[in-house]
Amino acid sequence: MYQNIATKCLTGEVRISFEHLARPYSNNGGEPKYSCTILIPKTDTATYNDLLSALQTAYEQGVNDKWKGSRPQLRYPVIYDGDGVRPSGEAFGVECKGHWVVTASSKQQPQVVHQSNVSVQLAETDIYSGMYARVTVNFFPYESSGNRGVGCGLGNVMKTRDGEPLSGRANAENDFAGAGTPAAAMPMGGPGMPGYAATPMGNAAMPAAYNPAPRYAPAAPTGNINPITGLPM
């Protein structure tokens, strides 16, 4: 529970993955939403138990209000085991190992701040998958097109520190580490520049072997020439 709201939680430090916090994203053609996947270390039992309690409260609210006493089996778990598999049967990414995995989303853009100043929102360039943060989430029951379940709403995000980006793209510092100082370039330029030496490229002063006379000279065209094709008209 957070701020006396039984379905709301403030996590401990988590790692952010699949981040769409600055711009909404449409998943499989659905309505664009702001979202992120939250990786909770399994050592953080306090956050895990808080999430379970909030999830159970949201479920009971659904039973009493939305679902008219029915207790549906949740089609998908809300909290996944990062050491297990996705609903598709595929294993989670290596970054999920040793973590609980929760995806939260919202139609409204979350505020993303830094713990050093929670009054100022971060620039988009400071927000990325792989950073560490604390996140507020709110669980809620839903019923849509015959499907009943509990969703996880995304609140706000407070960045705590930087981390290795999870974008899969290397940065320039890593790409060029250890590349050393480039060798001196060959002198380029023109007359009057240091290191410039003119190299003759076929003129009357060169030996005939390097300056042969043309063996064929085309005859001058006669008559009218088509200006487009270059052929006699």
UniProtKB/TrEMBL annotation:
Protein name (database record): DUF2815 family protein
Top-rank lineage group of the source organism: Bacteria
SUPFAM superfamilies: Nucleic acid-binding proteins (SSF50249)
Pfam family, one: Enc34_ssDNA-bd
InterPro entries per record: Enc34_ssDNA-bd, NA-bd_OB-fold
